[in-house]
User: Fold this.
Amino acid sequence: LLVIVFTIFSEVCVSLAQRKYTYTLHVTTAPSGAYCLPDVSCDGKILVSIHSDTGVKTDFIHLDKSRHDDFEAGATDTYILESRVFLSKIKCIEFKSETNDGWLLDKAVVVSSGVKTAFYNYNHVVLDTDRDDGRPNLKMCIQGNTDYSLTVETSTLHNSGSNDLFLTMVIEGEDGEDGRTSLIGNQRTNFNKGQVDTFFFHNLPQLKVKCIVLKANICGDDAWVFNRAILHKDGKDIEFKRPNTRLSSNKAGDQALDHIRLCACN
Assistant:
């Protein structure tokens, strides 16, 4: 009887040791021209490791799909990752570059057991082993567990829309903490004249919102004119009205304003 029990126990242990857990990873490369960089796509070797809130992490896994151009500008690539490491709650993600071909990751989303965890490259770090402004490693962690959405209304004035905006947002809390996004929207389909756009963000801090800062990372002489912004959180709306406010780059004239701080009392 003891031999039978030991055999069953051994088989269970071997089975558990060989079991693989699946994680789905979505990575979005920044669009062409973002942050005035000449090239954001990458043809080199990129690896990833996923970390739990207890410090457990997967080995680095090579991101590569057969007969597919990975990490193209503005594209979202999806990878099915397998690991013998079980992560009960995902906290961080780490990317490692083994190439001198710079890659600008915009955001990453990991899906495990139906739960999505989002990470934003809000410091727009370039993964590169060679260039002065690049880094070989990029580790991003969740900022919190709160979902937000932002609705913006573009003005109906002539030339109010923009296809070169590269908008980012900082949400400021009353206690000094903040939540930061990477690039917002799609340059081809959002921020058109008279259009209302809504964008969704996950894993940001739980904040008692005081202000938001919208920044236009415009490289040319383009501009965006908007009427209002509405931040949605926990079923409540915080509206910031600023009719016909113009955001542009410093190449657009002496009165250029590339960012604006909107507070709830405005």
